[in-house]
Every structure is written in C-alpha cells, then in structure tokens.
C-alpha cells in the first residue's frame, strides 16, 4: 500500500486512529522518503562496510521520525 494512500487508515490492529493527510502533508511524506532513499542509494555507490550499514540504518530512523512528525 502506498504510504500516502488514504487507505493506510484501514485495517491496522495496533494504531487505533489515523488521520487522513492533506495533499501538502502527502507531498511532504513522499519528498522526505525520496530524500532518504537518494542518500541511501548514494551510499550504496561508494561500497559496503559496517559503518555504511549503520549510517543507512540511521537514515531510515531519521526518515521514520520525520514522517511521524508530519503524520502525527
């Protein structure tokens, strides 16, 4: 399911309430995730290491918290 879809409010056993995002919020979520993906992909181009794996995990975490802010 697309993370900006209004359907994300359905069938969630854990989170009892979602709010429907407006178009600006949907665009912000998508842009935030795109920026995170772009940075992760750029790291993939320079090699592999434990340090890069940690960096990518931290990017994923940063995107998570930014999206949480937008959708909260």
Question: What would a concise description of this structure say?
Answer:
Helix content is 62%, strand content 0%. The chain has 72 residues and is an all-alpha fold.
Question: How would you characterize the overall build of this protein?
Answer:
62% of the residues lie in helices and 0% in strands. It has 72 residues and is mostly helical. The chain has one domain. α1 runs antiparallel to α2 (50-71).
Based on helices, strands and strand pairing, what is the structural class? mainly alpha
Low-confidence stretches: none
Kindly provide the radius of gyration, computed on alpha-carbon positions and rounded to a whole number of angstroms.
Answer: 14 Å
Q: List SSEs in N-to-C order.
A: HH
Main β-sheet description: none
The quaternary organization reads as: single chain
């Amino acid at each position: 399911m697309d993370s900006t879809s209004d359907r994300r409010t359905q069938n969630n056993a854990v989170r009892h309430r979602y709010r429907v995002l407006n178009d600006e919020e949907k665009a912000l979520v998508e842009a935030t995730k795109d920026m995170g993906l772009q940075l992760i992909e750029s790291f993939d181009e320079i090699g592999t290491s434990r340090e890069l794996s940690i960096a990518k995990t931290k990017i994923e975490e940063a995107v998570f918290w930014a999206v949480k802010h937008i959708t909260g």
